[in-house]
Amino acid sequence: MRRNAFGFMARAAWLGVALAVLAGAAPAWAVSYTAKTVVTMDALSGQVVESQSGDAPVGPASLAKMMTLYLVYAAVAEGHANWDDPVLAGSNAFHKEGSTMFLREGERVTLRELAYGIGVASGNDACIAVAEFLSGSEDAFVTRMNETAARIGMKHTHFGSATGLPAEGQVTTGEDMARLAYHLIADFPPVIEVLSTQYYTHGGVRQPNRNRLLWKNIGVDGVKTGHTEEDGFHLVASAQKGEQRFIVAVMGADGETSREEIAERYLLAAFRRFATVRAIKPGEPVAQVVVWKGAADSVGAVPDGPVFVSVPREREAEVTVAATVAELEAPVAKGQVVGTAQVYVGTEVVREVSLVADREVPEGGFFTRIWDALVLMFRALLDKLF
Question: What is the DSSP string of 196-229?
Answer without folding.
Answer: T--EEEETTEEEE-S-GGGGSSS-EEEEEEEEET
